[in-house]
Design goal:
CATH architecture of the domain at 160-350: Alpha-Beta Barrel
Family: Belongs to the ribonucleoside diphosphate reductase class-2 family.
CATH topology of the domain at 160-350: Anaerobic Ribonucleotide-triphosphate Reductase Large Chain
Protein name: Vitamin B12-dependent ribonucleotide reductase
Number of helices: 30
Structural class: alpha/beta
Organism: Streptomyces glaucus
Helix content: 25-40%
Radius of gyration: 30 Å
Number of strands: 28
CATH class of the domain at 160-350: Alpha Beta
Shape: globular
Largest sheet: 11 strands, mixed
Strand content: 15-25%
InterPro entries: RdRp_reductase_class-2 (IPR050862), RNR_2_N (IPR013678), RNR_lg_C (IPR000788), RNR_NrdJ/NrdZ (IPR013344), TSCPD_dom (IPR024434)
Keywords: Cobalamin, Cobalt, Disulfide bond, DNA synthesis, Nucleotide-binding, Oxidoreductase
């Protein structure tokens, strides 16, 4: 092993990694002598997950330990999906500490055993930094790592597999077996069937061959019976066929014909919904299908020429077809049932680092991993929002240096995992260890773009996305070259060195040619340029440890575990979110990225509050008070009145593809009104733009999913009862003028005496007779003192704001935790400590006037509730209907509103607009707001509506996914 020399272009990050005897690991977030676990506050929570269809409990584990900043959803998903051991036994994991330790200690030991680190101290820093990044949701490994690493079962770490099948019965049966083993381990697989001779060719016995389509039936049936990882999701698989295969038309039409069968059976009264009793009778439903097209075919389409279909055994043309007509059939099938997708063979192989070892012929089920047959790829994704530095006043920057350090840490860990990983077959194990394919990627791109004031479909948005992608992959390959100097390049590098370096040059050239747009992306491009210069120089000297570095996966389950608002490369689903609350219940909130975006765009706080209030009411920004029309596009989402155009998704893919080693898992959603010609345009333009693969999905094209229910008025047709339901009225507001609602002469009130840090005072809180706080009077010290005068002025300002409609919880969120003297102990048993008088006042007001779920989300609980949490693990009191007269309570003191909220959790007493009664995820909430029902399956585990994540579906409620990440 040789020492890594530092050249003039190398950064301090690269210099810190040099060492012929191992890596010198640099601290990023941790403090010497302090374990990351000791720097956070831990709390115990109960995880009880129910099926919304029948109310049954499908998972329950009480008293699990997580940091207090983890969301309810993230806790639920990690506990139910990733904790190992039988529930209710001592072997069951009960703390996030146990889960993270199980993983990071395994990685550290493997790194030490295989001589990655320069010293034990470096190994300890590596362990602590990895633990910190996982603990703080900065990145996540793919699900198989969480499932398997550190357990007694085989330590399969890869989520993505590519298999191969030859033209023999033995090979075909091996294919069935290998897929089954991969599905059992919690992953998905894809393969190309083009080596199997077509049904138009003869067998050696003289009879006609069955053809690949017939063998797809057996594999499909096998996949349909195996749940991934023995858990709660179905197997994921991809089937690819080359466009020059003689059976290509049969392949294209497989799912179209089955979709017609579904319609007939549905009309006959059979249950054909996904998960229905009768859907299993339909074939080919467990795989994504893709046609592999080459440049020869696409040019024939462009020029209107003929294209030859070739015999598999001899390579001779046995039939010529009209290229345009065949392309049209692909588009028609995709329009009708969303399959097949399309993969561009020459583009894929032009970026192939190992062509001397074989062509890339297939992909994993979600189309992001593309490499040699019989290989695997382990994935990890970074949470991009964790690297956005925002001072809250519109001044933002992307933390390029910290981002690079985290990429280096993660890539190092991913490479180490190959050293100890188990693989489902000997061939996959040998090839993966020989080529060491990695797939670092990211999530939360959509949220990042919105938060920085960039429209998803804009030059600025694409520039920032491209810059981050280039920096990520450049940094990953730089670390790969540094690792090659320490533990050696991958085994297949010597044979493929020229091709690998050529691809690195292609990446670097694309980076140099990219357009810089603004103050956010320009520094990122500069850092990426430096990284690619290092890649070229270090690669020339050391070679590379990994044949592949990056992909963009759907990040379904792991994205939710990290608390991400958006998955993979996807835009935001909508501007409103469905938020689960600690202690139970839920509420509707406006995306936190919206205020960030508005500050970045230069809006003042009062304007931001008015716009956010409009979004909370209407679900969109159309006619929001004070919002400029040119800024509407920043808030365009995947669904809604201003949905991003299909071509906008393709343009984003094209903007980042030049810096992704593999490909991008993405489905381009199209409206139900889209035409076959528009599908053709997307498939054709994606080829022109250099995208490697994509699929389309037209709303309402599948019977096996809930049909679109958007309410329409058809001329001459009688409206249905559903169509006659009142719709939210959107009023065009020229000028926003709130109206003051004054209190009557006689008003109910509460007077509270208090002391804070020895300072005495009195607070009188008066409310409207019907509901809600209306004014506050504060008396402190002697009349005429500065403190008394400021408290008088402050209480008047708060009272006027309340009467003009400012929600109390807004004041509570702004003024609690404000720190200044006097502060300290109080005489209030519900608020024992206060950081200031203002902190105490608004905690007391929250306890007196806010519903339980609202204040619980703000972390404000009474002494009784805190005691109940210690005893039962839940803050919320369970009140039986026959124990409390809710209607009677509603007429009494203001605190009765809180009791009413506890007694009837679905009561709409919150000042924040509550979620619709039947909404259990953000997807369902958006549907109810927009009056549509998106095409997505119901979750097999909990019955809630899933949503798109790349080319797969993810359940926001429990984390189940239809994909392989």
């Amino acid at each position: 092993m040789t020492e890594t020399a530092s050249g003039p272009a190398r950064s301090s990050r690269a210099k810190s990694a040099k060492a012929g005897k191992g890596l010198r690991v640099e601290r990023i977030h941790t403090t010497p002598g302090v374990h990351p676990y000791d720097e956070v506050t831990w709390e115990r929570r109960d995880v009880v997950m129910t099926n919304w269809r029948d109310g049954s409990v499908n998972f329950e584990q009480r008293g699990v330990e997580f940091p207090d900043f983890w969301s309810v959803n993230s806790v639920n998903i990690v506990t139910s999906k990733y904790f190992r051991g039988a529930v209710g036994t001592p072997q069951r994991e009960t703390s996030l500490k146990q889960l993270i330790d199980r993983i990071v200690k395994t990685y550290r030991k493997a790194g030490e055993d295989h001589k990655y680190f320069a010293s034990p101290a470096d190994a300890e820093i590596f362990e602590h930094e990895l633990a910190y990044a996982l603990l703080h949701q900065i990145f996540s490994f793919n699900s198989p790592v969480w499932f398997n690493v550190g357990t007694a079962q085989p330590q399969q770490v890869s989520a993505c597999f590519i298999l191969s099948v030859d033209d023999s019965m033995e090979s075909i049966l091996d294919w069935y077996k290998e897929e089954g083993m991969i599905f059992k381990g919690g992953s998905g697989a894809g393969l190309n069937l083009s080596r199997i001779r077509s049904s138009k060719e003869l067998l050696s016995s003289g009879g006609n061959a069955s053809g690949p389509v017939s063998f797809m039936r057996g594999a499909d049936a096998s996949a349909g019976t195996i749940k991934s990882g023995g858990a709660t999701r179905r197997a994921a698989k991809m089937v690819v066929l080359d466009v020059d295969h003689p059976d290509i038309e049969d392949f294209i039409e497989t799912k179209v014909k089955e979709e017609e069968k579904i319609r007939v059976l549905r009309d006959a009264g059979f249950d054909m919904d996904l998960g229905g009793d009768d859907i299993t009778s339909v074939q080919y439903q467990n795989a994504n299908n893709s046609v592999r097209v080459n440049d020869e075919f696409m040019k024939a389409v462009e020029n209107g020429g003929k294209f030859g279909l070739r015999a598999r055994m001899t390579g001779e043309v046995i039939e010529e077809v009209d290229a345009k007509q065949l392309f049209r059939k692909i588009a028609e099938a995709a329009w009708a049932c969303a399959d097949p997708g399309i993969q561009y063979d020459d583009t894929i192989n032009n970026w192939h680092t190992c062509p001397e070892s074989g062509r890339i012929t297939a992909s994993n089920p979600c189309s992001e991993y593309m490499h040699l047959d019989n290989t695997s790829c382990n994935l990890a994704s970074l949470n991009l929002m964790k690297f956005l530095q925002d001072d809250g006043k519109g001044n933002q920057s992307f933390e390029t240096e910290r981002f690079q350090k985290v990429v280096e840490l993660v890539i190092t860990a991913m490479d180490i995992s190959i050293c100890f990983a188990d693989f489902p077959t000997q061939k996959i194990g040998e090839n993966t260890r020989a080529f060491r394919q990695l797939g670092i990627g990211y999530a939360n791109l959509g949220a990042l773009l919105m938060a920085t004031g960039h429209a998803y479909d804009s030059d600025g948005g694409r520039a920032l996305a491209g810059a981050i992608t280039s920096l990520m992959t450049g940094t990953a390959y730089r670390r790969s070259a540094e690792l090659a100097a320490i533990v050696g390049p991958y085994d297949g590098y010597a044979r493929n060195a020229d091709a690998h370096k050529r691809v690195m040059k292609q990446h670097a050239d694309a980076n140099s040619a990219a357009v810089r747009m603004d103050d956010l992306d320009t520094p990122v491009w500069a850092a990426a340029t430096e990284a690619w210069q290092d890649v070229l120089s270090l690669g020339e000297r050391n070679g590379f440890r990994n044949s592949q570095a990056s992909v963009l996966a759907p990040t379904g389950t792991i994205g939710l575990a990290m608390g991400c608002d958006t998955t993979g490369v996807e835009p935001d689903l909508a501007l409103v979110k469905f938020k689960k609350l600690v202690g139970g219940g839920s509420m509707q909130i406006v995306n936190g990225t919206v205020p960030q975006a508005l500050r970045r765009l230069g809006y003042q706080e009062e304007q931001i509050e008015a716009i956010v209030a409009h979004i909370a009411e209407h679900g969109n920004v159309i006619d929001a008070p004070g919002l400029k029309h040119e800024h509407y596009e920043v808030f365009d989402c995947a669904m809604g009145e201003r949905a991003i155009s299909p071509m906008g998704h393709v343009r984003m893919m094209a903007a980042i593809q030049p810096w992704i080693s593999g490909a991008i898992s993405k489905t381009v959603n199209m409206p139900e009104t889209a035409t076959v010609e528009e599908v053709e345009e997307i498939y054709f333009e994606a080829w022109k733009m250099g995208v490697k693969a994509l699929a389309i999905y037209r709303d309402n094209c599948k019977v096996g999913q809930p049909l679109s229910a958007k309410k329409k008025d058809s001329a001459g047709e009688k409206k249905t009862e559903a169509a006659q339901e009142p719709q939210p009225k959107v009023e065009k507001v020229v000028e926003y003028r709130p109206v003051r609602k004054r209190l009557p002469k006689g008003r109910p009130g509460i007077t509270t005496s208090f002391t804070v840090g020895g300072a005495e005072g009195y607070m009188t809180a008066n409310s409207y007779p019907d509901d809600g706080l209306g004014e506050v009077f504060l008396k402190m010290s002697k009349q005429g003192s500065t403190l008394a005068g400021m408290m008088d002025a402050f209480s008047i300002a708060v009272s006027v704001g309340l009467q003009y409609g400012v929600p109390l919880e807004t004041y509570v969120s702004k003024f609690t935790n404000m720190r200044f003297e006097p502060a300290g102990m109080t005489d209030d048993p519900d608020v024992r400590m206060a950081q200031s008088i203002v902190d105490y006042i608004f905690r007391r007001l929250a306890l007196d006037f806010l519903p339980f779920e609202t204040r619980s989300a703000l972390g404000i609980h009474s002494a009784e509730e805190r005691q109940r949490h210690l005893e039962t693990g839940s803050y919320e009191q369970v009140i039986e209907d026959d124990e409390v007269d809710v209607e009677g309570l509603a007429q009494s003191a203001p605190r009765a509103q809180e009791l009413k909220a506890v007694a009837t959790p679905k009561a709409e007493t919150e000042a924040v607009k509550p979620a619709p009664k039947q909404a259990h995820t953000s997807a369902e909430l958006v549907e109810m707001q927009l009056g549509i029902q998106a095409d997505a399956p119901l979750c097999f585990s909990c019955g809630t509506k899933m949503q798109r994540a790349g080319s797969c579906y993810i359940c926001e409620g429990c984390g189940s996914t239809s994909g392989c990440s």
